[in-house]
Amino acid sequence: MTTAEMRLEPRAGAREWWGLAVLMLPVVLISVDNTILNFALPDISEALLPTGTQLLWILDVYPLVLAGLLVTMGSIGDRIGRRKLLLIGAAGFGIVSIFAAFAPTAEALIAARAALGLFGASLMPSTLSLLRNLFLNREQRRLAIAVWGSGFAGGGALGPIAGGFLLEHFWWGSIFLLAVPVLLPLFIFLPMLVRESRDPVDAPIDLLSAALVLLTMVPFVWSIKHAAEAGVDLTSGIAFAAAVAFGILFVVRQLKLEHPMLDVSLFRNSVFSGAIVINLFSIIAFVGGLFFITQHLQLVLGLSPMIAGLVLLPGLVVMIAAGLVVVPVARHVRAHLLVAAALVFSVLCYGSIAVQGGAVGVIGVALAVVALGVGVGAAETVTNDLILANAPASKAGAASGLSETAYELGSVLGVATLGTVLTASYRGHIVIPEGVAKADAAAAGETLGGAFEVARDLPQAVGDALRSAAVDAFGSGVSITSWLAAGLIVVAIVVSLTTLRRAK
Fold it and tell me: What are phi and psi of 262, to 5 degrees?
């Protein structure tokens, strides 16, 4: 697109920019929800006494349901109206958050998180697709996407601090109640500032395609979780084969439909598909890293939730800044080089933690997260812009849903793979000292938080020995998962250099 053509595109005014501010509310909320929950894991472990598997499901059932429904919800928004779907999702998310706050058992919390995933799936595609229709000018849209992406980072920065305050003064369930005051202004200002938009083609909602997406995502993620925990066996093989089969059926159906739920022809564009893959791999590494970093800061280094959040704050602020600074830089540097250069900083983050393992201190974690912030902030802004720019405006909801599916699938895979590898390494390396009852030994062998909770009620010498053994076992897993995360980012760099060359 030439400079002259960009000047002919309508430029957004004050109403559109205020509308963007309103659209940031659900974006910030989702990001806050993710980072707060990581910091609440020790409290949840002590209050609900989940098994190691249940603790992982508390984390990843939410992004799992999101990943399975985002494309569907994006398509529904294209048909019934993106603003309408956003309001419906916000209402449901607020109500279910109240139930999650008072969940009496691990099973109840898992169920509430699944319901949050259902309504959350209607929030994220709607925000990005409405943004696509608010900002028609390419340069303004790139800046708006940077602000949108900064909403994730801003929520990540706010989450640890707000969560730390709540967890130090209230019970763990208070973190879910944040959704209510955040979403209330949405119902007032969204109808005033953001116009309704939908796909001009009035096509029916394809329930069969929606079912095929869910049947693809759920067994695919479950097979990876099972293989990471119990090894590759017949069960994981059957689940993976079922996911592939349903995925093929979905693609075949989309190719035959006059108005498909997902225009799979978009993937023929190497820029579009490459940007999706880069987002997926970088988020797997990012979320998987947060899973062990937050536990390391609180349990191994003994920091309070709020202090641990402040340790991560510089990196998250840098993430916001990187997303904004990269906008003018993108005018002069080719996308494939810019994204690859940004991701090198993420490799440095995970490499430094991998070398130090469980011995990494507060300063080391803070510097590593700063490097990670540069990589994620800059790369995500550019790739999200490329995803929207390479999709028709009429399919903005479905394309946004696909972009968010990569993000949420990356979230669940980050926990399912790196989190499960960490848990399996912990279980394999921990040595329970003598003097620990069988039931307590089983709990201590599940999670680091469980070991600290058991050690609290043991005689001092035995408790200290158990804590030391648990920290050593956890540290061995930190090194392994950090190397895996670094490897994923290296793959993303290769994808950037090979698929984004034609991006302008």
Answer: -130, 125
Residue at token pair 């709990």: 443
Q: Would you state the pLDDT for residue 414?
A: 75
pLDDT at 408 over 90: no
Structural tokens at position 346: 């993420």
| 352 neighbors 120 (Cβ within 8 angstroms) | no
Return mean pLDDT, the chain: 80
Q: Which tokens in the block code for residue 347?
A: 């490799």
**CB 198, CB 82: distance < 8 Å:** yes
CA-CA-CA-CA dihedral for 81, 34, 176, 39, to nearest 10: -170
Tell the residue number behind the tokens 């005689």, with chain if given: 459
| Torsions phi, psi for 137 (to 5 deg) | -75, 130
- Give CA 288 to chain center in angstroms: 9
Q: Is the pLDDT of residue 26 over 60?
A: yes
DSSP line for 145-177 = HHHHHHHHHHHHHHHHHHHHHHHHHS-GGGGGG
- pLDDT of 447 above 60: yes
The amino acid sitting at 370 is: V
Q: How far apart are CA 200 and CA 306, in angstroms?
A: 48
What are the Cα distances from residue 424, in Å, to 234, 289, 476?
A: 19, 16, 11
Q: Rounded to an integer, what distance in angstroms lies between the CA atom of residue 253 and that of residue 257?
A: 6
CA–CA distance from 419 to each of 93, 105, 219, 341, 360 (Å)?
Answer: 26, 22, 18, 27, 18
Rounded Cα distance, 433 and 462, in Å = 7
- Please state, as a whole number, how many other Cβ atoms lie within 10 Å of the Cβ of residue 477: 25
Q: CA 266 → CA 45, 190, 256, 281, distances in Å?
A: 43, 30, 15, 19
Confidence of residue 355 (pLDDT cuts 50, 70, 90): confident
293 touches 361 (CB < 8 A): no
Mean of the pLDDT values across residues 143-153? 71
Task: Return phi, psi of residue 280, to 5°.
Answer: -60, -50
Contact criterion met (CB below 8 Å) for 474 and 448: yes
Helix runs in 358-457, H state only = 362-389, 396-413, 420-429, 438-444, 448-456
Mind spelling out the 3-state secondary structure of 182-209?
HHHHHHHHHHHHCCCCCCCCCCCCCHHH
Rounded Cα distance between 72 and 207, Å, is: 9
Nearest Cα neighbor of 40 from 154, 153, 164, 161 is 164
- Confidence check: pLDDT of 284 > 80: yes
pLDDT: is 200 or 279 the higher one? 279
